[in-house]
Request: fold
Amino acid sequence: NILQRELLTVEQNGQGDWQPAAALSGTLLVVDDDAALRSFLVRRLELDGYSVHEADSVDSAKLKLRERTYDLILLDLMMFPLSGYELFDELKEDPTLKWVPLIVLSARSDVRDKVRCLMLGANDYVTKPFEYDELAARIYSLLSRTRNFEQLAFRDPLTGVFNRRYFDHQLELELQRLARDPAPISIAFIDIDRFKRVNDTYGHAIGDLVLQGLAHLMQQHLRPTDFLARFGGEEFVAVMPNTTGEQAVSRMESVLQLARQQPIAEFEGQSFSITFSCGVAEWVPSLPMKQWVVLADEAMYRAKEQGRDQVVL
Ligand code: GH3
Ligand code: MG
Ligand code: MG
Ligand code: MG
Reply:
């Protein structure tokens, strides 16, 4: 009985120096046809600070997985009419779902189920009945490993913003979502003006501070749903969902205005300022990702040609 186990856990908590698992932030999807178990998991995981969504069948899970991205999936095997195994095919085939951390949570304790699930792509297998604390520790372990991996794979170490690999991956995801549910979305390409001069005049270390300063300034002016990536050396790209081209232009113009007004970096009492050239492109239905990026890049080059220090749509 789940509630009894919970009480047991509370008692254990009070003994010695036993510590429950820490929790990370993240959005989890619980796929299980057992409503009582789902509500138990939702309650406990939310108490731990996770955001939790539920699905009571494989079909409902498929819909949920299309709506948003999840940090981890908890999957039951014995469900009706489709078993949890049916979700593996969906997960395996979709490059954007393939690597979502997955823990199977099943009453089936047969070694063949465990092996099959792990070989199909599950990262862990927990048998029911289970101790909540053990599950929470397994979630923590899997999420923290994944985060560390993502940090290395998807972040630019100098500025901390996303890298090109993440940009490509995430833009593809956005386009898949837009194909189902069209909405305005824009990208902005930013290239620092005469950046070579900064390096040549003050040295690479100052150039690096300027790059960090610009990344920081832009981060401050983007919304939580936007994301910023370092595209190349001194080029950044901002992705702005639910934003028309005109709106993106005015947002980038205010960032440019700030860059003109305040130093982007300071070092030993000396201030450094830059301007940038920016090209904006709004997505239109059926425009392929690569061409969309080219449009923004071309707009950026027009900004350079027209004298730099400006935003061009
Ligand atoms: P424009 O206005 O036409 O863009 O001129 P620019 O000097 O910015 O353009 P260019 O592409 O010629 O120079 C980009 C410079 O960015 C050259 C390179 O040394 C510098 N750069 C690229 N990556 C880094 C980096 O990680 N750190 C530093 N400090 N400089 C970098
Ligand atoms: Mg079940
Ligand atoms: Mg450049
Ligand atoms: Mg430049």
